[in-house]
Each structure stands twice: as C-alpha cells, then as structure tokens.
C-alpha cells in the first residue's frame, strides 16, 4: 500500500517527508512528482512504508495536520486509472 499526501508545500523535500513519516514506522520510498515542463513540484507526494499498520497509523495521525503552513490531505493512494488519454489524442491534425 502507498500513502498519498496532498496539499503539500512546494518547499517540501523527500528528506522532510521521510523524517515526518518515520515517526510512524520505516519508510521504504518517497516520491515527489514534478511537472514535466517546468520541473516544479506538483504539490503532492507518495510515501510507501514497510507495513500496513505503520501506514494506517501515519494516515490517522497526519490527515488534516498542519505542516509547513499547509493542512495535509493524507490517505491511501488509489491505483492509477487507465484510459486517461495521452497527448497524442489532443494534437491538432496536420493538413
């Protein structure tokens, strides 16, 4: 299981998140997605912990918590949905 963290400060780093989530168990991985064009953080992250109990505890304690001036949205990540289209679908036809 992976945890989704929304409404994240754009100044947050992987190390910052790891430090916060380690209070609830062993952190296996932190992912901070960036915008492909600008390289800027997108305001959310994913954290994977070593076991479900640690993840549940982190979600319970951090959802709604204020951190770095923002009220965090923390919950179980949903699987990526298929069929979202791709950029090819939206290109203008060349005549």
What can you tell me about this protein's structure?
The chain is α+β, with helices and mostly antiparallel strands and 95 residues long. Helix content is 20%, strand content 24%. The protein contains two helices and six strands; from the N terminus they run E-H-E-E-H-E-E-E. The strands form two sheets. The protein has a four-stranded antiparallel beta sheet, with helices on one face. The protein is globular. It starts with a strand and ends in a 19-residue tail after the last strand. The C terminus is likely disordered.
Top keywords for this entry?
single chain, 2 helices, two-stranded antiparallel ribbon, 6 strands, alpha+beta, globular, four-stranded antiparallel beta sheet, disordered C terminus, 95 residues
Radius of gyration: 16 Å
Total helices: the number is 2
Succession of helices and strands: EHEEHEEE
Distance between the termini: 47 Å
Work out the helicity level. Answer: 10-25%
Percent range for β-strand residues: 15-25%
Determine the mean pLDDT. Answer: 89
Would you report the number of β strands?
6
Low-confidence stretches: 87-95
User: How would a textbook summarize the main sheet?
Assistant: 4 strands, antiparallel
Derived structural class? alpha+beta
Instruction: Output the strand order for the largest sheet.
Output: 2-3-1-6
Estimate the global geometry from the Cα principal axes.
globular
């Amino acid at each position: 299981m992976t945890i989704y963290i929304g409404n994240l400060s754009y100044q947050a780093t992987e190390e910052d998140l790891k430090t916060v989530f380690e209070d609830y168990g062993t952190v296996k991985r932190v992912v901070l997605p960036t915008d492909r064009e600008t390289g800027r953080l997108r305001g959310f992250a994913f954290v994977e912990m070593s076991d479900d109990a640690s993840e549940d505890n982190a979600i319970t304690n951090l959802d709604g918590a204020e951190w770095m001036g923002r009220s965090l949205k923390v919950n179980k990540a949903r699987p990526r949905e298929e069929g979202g289209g791709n950029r090819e679908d939206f290109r203008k036809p060349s005549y």
